[in-house]
Write a structure and sequence with these properties.
Layout: E1 4-5, H1 16-22, H2 24-27, H3 38-58, E2 65-68, H4 71-83, E3 92-96, H5 101-112, E4 116-120, H6 130-136, E5 141-145, H7 159-168, E6 172-176, H8 188-191, E7 195-199, E8 210-214, H9 240-253, H10 257-278, E9 282-284, E10 295-300, H11 305-314, E11 317-318, E12 320-321, H12 334-338, H13 343-346, E13 349-353, H14 360-379, H15 382-388
Length: about 400
């Protein structure tokens, strides 16, 4: 059975060029980058080259890039670091109702520490309501945090406009760009970004490495203390091979975004059209055009998302559900509820996420499988038959 992987928003494979770049730093060039001897200097050069590659991809200065363990750490550092920055007297964080849990759970913790958090709503397509955002940003706000693109429904936010709102009130602006790298052109200078989080495994680097961009003029509190690594801002021996992989991967991912996106958009739009046309009572979640090029998120009425997932998996197709049930929770995705979906429809959601390694043939295979699966599951659904009587 040929397997088809369409869960690239969850993680991507390490590609051969990235793996080849990493290989020497496991067994041959293994020195600690903080050591002063030749082994250490060799490793330090590799770390600094990766830092340069990440900076170039974001139009940043190399000194503005700090390597972390993942996007979640970077998010935590941005929020908690800004909250506890020396000299900060402001007590309000502004974010949105559809952020990743790395942001939402950190915000909840800050609330327990007597900070105020304002959660700005989104419209039915998952786009931040800008009038509500502007009202939320007061003189007491220290940070506004809005993701560049949503990890579930793929909606891309008006980052530049929100950053201007934040700066007008003297607040910093942070964006979780974990899902956007390689799909959205990011220029931290032009977009007015003060802090940005990214994670390597979303664009073919290994798991366990990420980065935080911090504008040179921004000073936030350290999250992890210990040694003098990362210019004393992030302690812990550098994950050498993975950092090298991150640098190579981001360089490749951002080399030709337009051509990369053109292929994905063609596949994405074809899949959406086929699903909505051939499977009755389905709906697209998120904006039809202002979305990540490889993201398809649909709700299928009368069917649980987990049933769709398991049935697709039996056919060798990897996807994910719009419901949080697969992680042990009983509630559907907070993102789908935030865009106004009722529980029963949110529970029947499916996310298919592609990258440049997928093909149109795979898209057609997945659609055919989905048509058959939905027909079979609905035939067994008492709710479906009750509604149709």
């Amino acid at each position: 059975m040929n397997r088809i992987y369409m869960d690239n928003a969850a993680t991507t494979r390490v590609t051969e060029p990235v793996f080849e770049a990493m290989k020497p730093y496991f067994c041959e060039k293994f020195g600690n980058p903080m050591s002063v001897h030749s082994f250490g200097r060799e490793s330090r050069r590799a770390v600094e080259e990766a830092r340069r590659q990440v900076a170039a991809a974001l139009n940043a200065d190399s000194r503005e890039i700090y390597f972390t363990g993942c996007g979640t750490e970077s998010d935590n550092w941005a929020l908690r670091g800004a909250a506890y920055a020396r000299g900060n007297t402001r007590r309000t964080l502004v974010t949105t109702t559809i952020e990743h849990h790395a942001i939402l759970h950190t915000a909840e913790q800050l609330e327990k520490e007597d900070f105020k958090v304002v959660y700005v709503p989104v419209d039915e397509f998952g786009i931040v309501k800008l009038d509500e955002m502007e009202k939320a940003i007061t003189e007491d706000v220290f940070l506004v945090s809005v993701m560049t693109a949503n990890n579930e429904i793929g909606t891309i936010q008006p980052i530049e406009e929100i950053a201007r709102m934040a700066h007008a009130k003297g607040a910093l602006f942070h964006t979780d760009a974990v899902q956007a790298i390689g799909s959205v052109k990011i220029d931290v200078k032009a977009m007015g970004i003060d802090l940005l989080s990214l994670s390597g495994h979303k664009f073919h680097a290994p798991k366990g490495v990420g980065a935080l961009y911090m504008k040179n003029s921004v000073h936030i509190e350290r999250l992890i203390r210990g040694g003098a690594q990362e210019r004393t801002q992030r302690a812990g021996t550098e994950n050498l091979a993975s950092i090298v992989g991150l640098g190579k991967a981001i360089e490749l991912a951002t080399a030709d975004i337009d051509a990369h996106n053109a292929k994905l958009i063609e596949m994405r739009d074809h899949m959406i059209s086929e699903i909505l046309t051939r499977i009755p009572e389905t709906r697209l979640n998120g904006d039809a055009t202002r979305r990540l090029p490889g993201n398809v998120n649909v709700s299928v009425r009368y069917i649980e998302g987990e049933s769709l997932l398991l049935s697709l998996d039996l056919k060798g197709i990897a996807a994910s559900s719009g419901s949080a049930c697969t992680s042990g929770a009983l509630d559907p995705s907070h993102v789908l509820l935030a865009i106004g979906l009722p529980h029963e429809i949110a529970h029947g959601s499916l996310r298919l996420t592609m990258n440049e390694e997928n093909t149109m043939e795979e898209v057609d295979t997945v659609v055919e499988a989905l048509v058959e699966i939905v027909k079979r599951l609905r035939a067994m659904s008492p709710l479906y038959h009750a509604e149709k009587q």
